[in-house]
Input
Amino acid sequence: MWQLVLYVNPFTVLLFVLGTVAFSLTFCRWSASRPDRGVKAARSLFRLCLAVVLVATLVPTEPIGSGVRNVWLTPGDGLVGPGVADLFPQERRMVLALTIANAAMFVPLGVLWYGIAKGAPALTAVTGCSLLSVGIEAVQFLMNAGRIVDIDDVLFNTAGAMIGALVAATAHALSRRNVRAHRAPRRAGAHRATS
Output
C-alpha cells in the first residue's frame, strides 16, 4: 500500500485537490436536492474511505509483537530534524511524499464526515478525524509490528481532515446559495401566477 507515495508529485497532488473540490461541489449540490440520500451516500463512502485508511495504516509490516517500538514525538523531526541532513535527495523526496500522502489520506474523511454531520461545524469533522488518527497511532504502538508512531502523522492527518472539512463547508455553502437562487425565481413566478 505504501507504494502509492511513489506517485505523489505536484501533478498528482493538483489532480487530487481538483478532484476533491469537484466531488465536494457535485456531492453537495446533489445532496441538497436529496438530503436523505445524501447522508446515506456520505455514510457509505465514509465507511469505504475509513476501511482504506485502516488497511493502509494498520496492516503490520512485521509480525505482531516483534518490532522495535519507534515513537517520534517531536513535531517536524522527520521533515527537518537532525537526521534529515544525512538523507539522499531521493530519500528526502520520499519523506515529503509520505507526509503529503498522510494529509491527502484524511481529506476525503474530512469531506464525508462534514457531509454526515449536517449542521455541525467543520471543527467537529476535524476533531473526529484527529481523534481517529490518535487512535490509529495508539494501535500501531500496541501492535508493535514495524510501524513508527509519529506525531507528524497525527498533525498531517488532521491538516488533511481540516482541508477536507473546509472544502466541504465551502461547497455546502455554495450549493445552498445556488439552490436558494434557483428556487427564488420559481416562487416569484408561482406567486404572480396565483395573484
Observations:
- The chain has one domain: 2-182.
- The mean pLDDT is 86.
- The helical segments are 10-33, 35-58, 77-80, 89-116, 122-143, 151-194.
- The CA atoms of residues 113 and 125 lie 5 Å apart.
